[in-house]
């Protein structure tokens, strides 16, 4: 019913439920180790530990398995919600305020940002001959920017697996980005422009 390839567990219905469950378990286990290993955690120490050891498990190869079911989105975010309570003096604060104090974005934002970085790489880094036929420019030019993507239509329903696949979900977000973000030359400049936007 499922197969692990390059660290991603792919199931027979491509919902990635098993992969997400496993990654949450691993990430929660590491959060538990951090809690048991440190009697005091300030924001800087926590951030370094979390970004180095926990978050990579929740993000690796997310362009492939990014969740579309609310229960999976919430389950992933709950790892970070619980983890940020480990910082001394922040446990009583609301989650958005904790993120602000620690200087962390939500995991939802990180996944969307990762998607946009992948699209930028498609235009600027990857070998164009290897790209999916779904990844193509719009037929009609747009005033927004010259790198507009064709928006493919899913044929398996509104809340479908296909609609959440990479090429289907990134086109609307990419097309809404302003010209000064998408038309920069380097990946580092793109990341800075995207974060400012």
Summarize the structure in words.
The structure is a single chain. The chain is mostly helical. It contains ten helices and two strands, in the order E-E-H-H-H-H-H-H-H-H-H-H. The chain has a two-stranded antiparallel sheet. Strand 1 and strand 2 form a beta hairpin. Helix 1 runs parallel beside helix 4, helix 6 packs across helix 8 and helix 6 runs antiparallel to helix 10. The longest helix has 21 residues. The N and C termini lie far apart (about 40 Å). The model has no long low-confidence stretch (mean pLDDT about 85).
Q: Helix and strand succession? A: EEHHHHHHHHHH
Structural class: mainly alpha
Number of E strands: 2
Poorly predicted regions are none
Strand content: under 5%
Percent helix, as a range, is 55-70%
The main sheet orders its strands as: 1-2
Mean pLDDT: 86
Number of helices: 10
Gross morphology: globular
CA-based gyration radius = 19 Å
Describe the largest sheet.
Answer: 2 strands, antiparallel
What separation lies between the terminal Cα atoms? 41 Å
Summarize the structure.
With 197 residues, the protein is mainly alpha-helical.
Outline the secondary-structure elements.
Layout: E1 2-5, E2 8-11, H1 17-37, H2 43-59, H3 62-65, H4 70-83, H5 95-102, H6 107-124, H7 161-164, H8 166-176, H9 179-182, H10 187-196
Antiparallel strand pairs: 1-2
Helix pairs in contact: 1-2, 1-4, 6-8, 6-10
